[in-house]
Design brief:
- With 276 residues, the chain is α/β, with parallel strands linked by helices.
- The chain is built from 12 helices and 10 strands.
- It has 3 domains: 109 residues, Cobalt-precorrin-4 Transmethylase, domain 1, CATH 3.40.1010.10; 106 residues, Tetrapyrrole methylase, C-terminal domain (Methyltransferase, Cobalt-precorrin-4 Transmethylase, Domain 2, 2-Layer Sandwich); 45 residues.
- A 5-stranded parallel β-sheet has the order 3-2-4-1-5, with helices on both faces. The chain has a 5-stranded mixed β-sheet with strand order 6-7-10-8-9.
- The protein starts with a strand and ends with a helix.
- Bound molecules: S-adenosylmethionine.
- The site of S-adenosylmethionine has 23 residues, from α5, β7 and β10.
Length: 276
C-alpha cells in the first residue's frame, strides 16, 4: 500500500502560527520535501526537528517529483513544505499533488497559514466572492491578456507581488481599472512590520513613489461595481460563461450560471458559446 503525501503549511512570518498538527505531521513523516532546504532547515532547527530533507522546487520538480512518487508508492510518508504558507498555492507543490493524484497516492492537506486568505480577511473589501489571480506574468502580452480578462470582474481579486515590481504593477492595474478603484496593500503579514493600507489605485501609486516598497505584499483589488447595465451586457455575460467553460463546466451549465449572475438571456448566451 502506498504512503500519503501531507501538505504542511508553514508560517508566513510569525513562527507561532505553526500548529501542533503541522509539527506532529512533520515529526511523523518518513521524509520531508522542501522548496528551499536552507529556508526549511532554519525552521526545523528552531523546532528542534531532525529529518531527512529532499529538495523539490521549480527547477528540479520533474526529476525530484518522480523520485518522491517512487518512495510514496513504496509505502513511505512524505510531508511537503514550501518556503512559507500553504504548499500548492502559487508554488511547485501544485505539480506534486497532481502527480500523486495521477498515481493514486493519497494527499492530505493540513490547514494553516496562506498569505492570500490572510490578506483578503484583513483587506476591508468584500470577501463573499473573490478570485485568486496569483502573480501577474512579466511577459507583457500575457500580462495584458490576463488584466484584459479581468476588466469586468466583479469579485474581489487577489494578487501576489514582489516589492521591486509593485510600482509597475500598480500602474498597470490603474490603466485597466482606473485610479479610483479601491486596493488594499497588505505588507509583511504576521511580521513585526505588518502594514495594511486601504487606498485607491491613484493613492497607492503616490504612496509607492514616496515610500519605496519593501517586504512581501499581497494586493487585494476591489471588483467592478455591478451596475444593472453592466450586468446585462453581453460582453460581461460572455466573459463569465467562457471563464466557467475554461474551468471545466459544460456549455449548458456555463451559460446557465452566467445568465443567472448577469440577467442576460440564457438561450442567447448558450447559442453564442456553442459556436466557440
Ligand atoms: N504558498 C504561499 C501561501 O500560501 O501564501 C505563497 C507562495 S508565493 C511563492 C509567495 C508570495 O506570497 C509572496 O511573493 C507574497 O506575495 C506572498 N506572501 C508570502 N508571505 C507574505 C507575508 N508575510 N505578507 C505578505 N505577503 C506574503
Amino acid at each position: 500500500m502506498s504512503g500519503t503525501l501531507y501538505l504542511v503549511p508553514t508560517p508566513i512570518g510569525n513562527l507561532g502560527d505553526l500548529s501542533p498538527r503541522c509539527r506532529e505531521t512533520l515529526e511523523a513523516a518518513d521524509f520531508i520535501a522542501a522548496e528551499d532546504t536552507r529556508v526549511s532547515l532554519k525552521l526545523f532547527n528552531h523546532l528542534g526537528l531532525k529529518k531527512q530533507l529532499v529538495s523539490y522546487y521549480e527547477h528540479n520538480k520533474r526529476e525530484s517529483g518522480k523520485r518522491i512518487v517512487e518512495r510514496l508508492l513504496a509505502g513511505e510518508t512524505c510531508a511537503l513544505v514550501t518556503d512559507a504558507g500553504t504548499p500548492a498555492i502559487s508554488d511547485p507543490g501544485e505539480d506534486l499533488v497532481r502527480l500523486c493524484a495521477e498515481n493514486g497516492i493519497p494527499v492530505c492537506a493540513v490547514c494553516g497559514p496562506c498569505a492570500a486568505v490572510t490578506a483578503l480577511a484583513v483587506s476591508g473589501l468584500p470577501t463573499a466572492r473573490f478570485c485568486f489571480e496569483g502573480f501577474l506574468s512579466v511577459n507583457k502580452k500575457s500580462r495584458r491578456e490576463h488584466l484584459d480578462a479581468l476588466r469586468s470582474e466583479t469579485r474581489t481579486m487577489i494578487f501576489y507581488e514582489a516589492p521591486h515590481k509593485l510600482a509597475a504593477t500598480l500602474s498597470d492595474l490603474r490603466d485597466h481599472f482606473g485610479g479610483e478603484r479601491r486596493i488594499s496593500l497588505c505588507r509583511e503579514l504576521t511580521k513585526l512590520h505588518e502594514e495594511i493600507l486601504r487606498l485607491t489605485l491613484d493613492e497607492a501609486i503616490a504612496h509607492c513613489a514616496e515610500t519605496p516598497p519593501r517586504g512581501e505584499y499581497v494586493l487585494i483589488l476591489a471588483g467592478a461595481e455591478a451596475t444593472q447595465d453592466e450586468d446585462r451586457s453581453e460582453e460581461t455575460a460572455l466573459a463569465k460563461a467562457r471563464r466557467y467553460l475554461a474551468a471545466g463546466m459544460s456549455k449548458k451549465d456555463a451559460a446557465r450560471l452566467a445568465a443567472e449572475e448577469t440577467g442576460f438571456p440564457k438561450n442567447a448566451l448558450y447559442d453564442k458559446i456553442k459556436q466557440d
